[in-house]
Each structure stands twice: as C-alpha cells, then as structure tokens.
Specification:
This protein has 496 residues and is mainly α. The chain has one domain. Helix content is 73%, strand content 2%. The chain is built from 21 helices and four strands. Strands 1-4 form a two-stranded antiparallel ribbon. A two-stranded antiparallel sheet has the order 2-3.
Length: 496
C-alpha cells in the first residue's frame, strides 16, 4: 500500500510541475484540454468496467503453460467466486503495476519518459526547428510526393516489422514536419501514427500478431501472405485518399483545421524566416540521423532475431537517448542546460503516464473480478449454429472488443486463438481466415480506442484532445472497418 501512495504523490507532483495551467506554446507539451478529455473518457470506461463486475457472473477457463507460454483450454469454462472490492477498483491504476504482466507497462512508461526528455532538449536547443527547416527547403516544392513516401515508410515498419510502440519517437518528428510544410498536426499524425497502426494491422509479416497467432493454430509462419499484401495495398490507397485532400484543404485555409492554432502557425512561419545554414548545426543533424538510423536498422532486424524482439523497446530508448544527447551537445547546448531541459521533458510526460495507468487498470479490473473469461465464453456461444460469414465477422468483433481491454497483440493472441481456432473448425472456416480476422481486430482499433497507450501518448505530446482525434479520424476508421469486413467475407468466399 505504501507504493500506491508514492505513485499517487508522483502524479500530483507531475501535475504541478508540468505547468499545465500556464503552459507555454512549445510543440510537444501535453495540453490541459487533451489531458482532461482523455482523463474523463478513461474514467467513464473504468466505471463501466466496474459496473460489469456486478452484472456478469465470474468465471474462468483452465489454462496450460507450454514452453513458458500460457494459453486457454477450450470447453473448460466454469463459474467461480469473483468480484472486486471498491477500494481495489479505486486504486486499480496503481495496483495494476504490481499485477502479472505489468512489466510491459512499466517498460512503456520508462521508454516514454526517456523519449519525452530527449525531445524536449532537442526542441529547447533549436535542433528540431533546424531539422525541419532543412527538410522544408528540400521538399517544399515536392511535399505531395513526400507525404506518400513518409506514410509508406511508417506503414512498412508496422506491416513488415511489427513496429508500433517503437515508432512513438518518430511521431513528433512527423508532426513537426507537417507544420513546416504548411499542414497541421493531424496530417503529421496521419502519415505516422495512422500509417504505422494501419500497417501493423495488415500484418503482412508482423511477428507479434500474425506470427504468434499462426504458430498457436499450427500454420506455417507468415503463410497466406497474398491476402495480407492485398490488404496492405488497399489500406495504403485509402489512407492517401484521406490524407492528401485534407492536407491540401489545410494548406489553402489553415483555419479549416479542427486544431487551428494561430500561435503555432506563426511560430513555424517565423522559424522559416529566421533560418540560416551552419556547419556545426548540420554536423548535429548528421549525428542525430546516423544514430537514429542504427535504431531503425535494429527495428528492421528484430523480426529475424528473437533476442532483439524482447529487448527492442529499451534498445530504442537508449538509441534515442544517445541521438538526442549527442546531437544537442554538438548543436551547441551546454551540459547543464541539456539536463534541465531533459528533466522538464520527463516531467511534461508524467500526466500521460497517469492516462496509461488508468487504461491498464481496466484490464486489471476484469482479470481480478474474473469477468474477462465470462465475456469470452458468451462470445463463443454466439457463434453456435451461425453462418460461416457471420462467424468470421464475430471473430473480428471479438478481437475488436478485447482490444479495448488488452492492447498487447501477442498477449491477446495467446488469450484468444485457443478459443478462435475451435470456433473456426466447427463452422468450416479456415484457420488462415481466423488469424486474419484476429489480426484485423487487434490492429485497426489501436489508433482509435482511448485505452491504447501509444495513441494516448502521441495525442498528449502534440496537444490534441481525443475528441478532436475522434472527429477527424472517424471517417477513415469507419471506411477501414467496412473494407476489412468485406475483405474477410471475400477471403471466406474464395476459400482462403
């Protein structure tokens, strides 16, 4: 219990330390409005989840551990004693840190604190401004060739490497690039966060969703790739059809942006007029790009090196720490100034840490009250005597629902695939389709649900409220849902 109060004290200190009441206009601060919006949404979800503990019976499946991996045994569901005391629910954001599986959440938090510190230091010293002014001068006349290339780069990272959380450091870079080219932060998020999330969801060679799921159901790893490649091409086209017209609209009239901020526009305009080339600053960019390039290479290699897969997040954090530190010092920032800026950047990230803890508490509540398996069991019952196309969509829906509570793709695969595979077999559906439906359900909602840590931190860093993100991205999310549902029905029809 002492740890709980320590965590609570840290959050309170963070709130005061961020200066959120009198926030400056830097690009990468977490805005008060976006923080409060996300806080309210997550609290409502916490309340609704706790209400379910009184409405649903507690139950669980038997589980087996094979080679250190836990999985569910189908047809073993039974009711048990459950429930969750009110005080545990109230403190669940902090108690969840001591629960099983919390190591990943703690690693994400540490990762984000490092990224926040490094980015703030680079922002304060002017390195980021210089970087994007250089890019602006090279790409200002080819911006609509650059947008598809950047989007393709991020989609490939998600689709072929399974990167998602690891791309958080690159999201603010894409946002700053968007501002420097005359667009808004939503375009930057679209060609980075949306792109990597959509690529991750297609799962072309994603080891964390498709790879794990296929292994669990006895399929050759990455088999059936043609369908996922087709999905990749169609989703990429849909993303560009959404982003490019919006970017052109904002370029013509910045005030049509949902997040229009005249101060932000003026800041970037003034930076472009104040720009001048300097060898020392160019050398700092070379250091930054070189070290970051090593990180990207490691991300690419992680698909083929199991050891890297387990360590990729701390490695990327270390890489970015080195890139930010060395480039800022070469740029001309003093050591003491760097430490102050780094510390402030870490403090600025702490409100987002609270949001991550709240999102994680929803899973904790369901597990501790033993209603998660009940939800799975009831979903399984819905598939009985249904047509194969309906069952495919129900599997998709099951993964979508579970994503709200469990954001980890591989963890969810171990939970769901032992249930999904028998459902598919009994209804004459190929296991390849069941894996595809799972991958779609796990991935595409990553960049839409307010319980996803990557979405929360990305929105927080660039100061965009979830409500505005919802309004802006809802159209393409609905289009993606319709397209992927149609692709699943097509796959079922052709015997994929």
């Amino acid at each position: 219990m002492n740890r709980t109060w320590i965590y609570a004290a840290i959050v309170l200190i963070a709130w005061k330390g961020t200066g959120m009441e009198q926030q400056d206009k830097r690009v990468f601060n977490i805005g008060t409005r976006s923080f409060v919006t996300a806080l309210i949404i997550l609290f409502i979800l916490m309340v609704l989840t706790y209400a379910l503990t009184f409405l649903l019976p507690a139950g669980e499946y038997e589980r087996v551990v094979t080679d250190g991996t836990e999985s569910i045994v189908a047809e073993t569901y039974h009711t048990v004693d459950g429930g969750l005391p009110f005080w545990k629910w109230l403190l669940s954001p902090f108690l969840a840190l001591g629960a099983s599986g919390s190591a990943t959440v703690i690693a994400i938090i540490a990762f984000l604190l490092v990224i926040g510190g490094a980015f703030n230091a680079m922002d304060v010293c002017g390195l980021l401004s210089y970087l994007f002014n250089r890019v602006y001068r090279m790409a200002a006349n080819q911006k609509y060739k650059l947008l598809p290339l950047v989007s393709l780069f991020f989609m490939c990272l998600g689709a072929f490497v399974g990167s998602f959380e690891e791309c958080v450091p690159l999201v603010p870079i894409a946002v700053a690039l968007a501002y420097s080219l005359g667009w808004d932060a939503l375009v930057g998020l679209g060609m980075s966060l949306l792109a990597v999330g959509f690529g991750f969801s297609t799962g072309v060679c994603n080891p964390f969703t498709v790879g794990v799921a296929q292994e669990l159901v006895g399929l050759p790893m990455f088999s059936g790739i043609w369908m996922r490649l087709l999905t990749f091409v169609l989703i990429y086209g849909l993303l560009l059809a959404f982003l490019i017209p919006y970017a052109k609209k904002i370029e013509r009239d910045p005030q049509r942006s949902l997040i229009y901020d005249s101060a932000m526009i003026d800041r970037w305009a003034s930076l472009r007029t104040e720009f001048s080339l300097e060898k020392r600053k160019d050398a700092a960019l070379v250091w930054f790009a070189s070290i970051l390039g090593v990180g990207i290479a490691l991300i690419l290699c992680s698909s083929f090196v199991p050891l890297l897969q387990d360590l990729i997040m701390p490695i990327i954090a270390l890489i970015f720490l080195l890139a930010g530190t060395i480039s800022s010092l070469v740029f001309g920032m003093g050591g003491k100034s760097y430490l102050r800026a780094f510390g402030k950047g870490m403090v600025n990230i702490l409100p987002a840490v609270l949001l991550i803890l709240m999102a994680n508490s929803i899973r904790y509540t369901m597990l501790e009250s033993k209603i998660l398996d009940t939800i799975l069991y009831q979903t399984v019952q819905l598939t009985q005597n249904a047509q194969s196309g309906v069952v495919v969509l129900l599997i998709y829906a099951l993964a979508l629902v579970m994503e709200l509570f469990i954001s980890s793709g591989s963890a969810k695969a171990f939970l769901l695939m032992p249930l999904i595979a028998p459902i598919a077999d009994l209804n004459g559906i190929s296991r390849q389709i069941s894996v595809l439906a799972y991958a779609f359900g796990d991935g595409f909602s990553n960049v839409f649900y307010p319980t996803n840590p990557v979405l929360l931190i990305s929105l927080g860093i660039v100061g965009i409220g979830y409500g505005k993100w919802f309004r802006w991205s809802a159209k393409i999310q609905i289009a993606v849902l319709a397209l992927t549902s149609a692709l699943l029905l097509f796959a079922n029809a052709v015997g994929y």
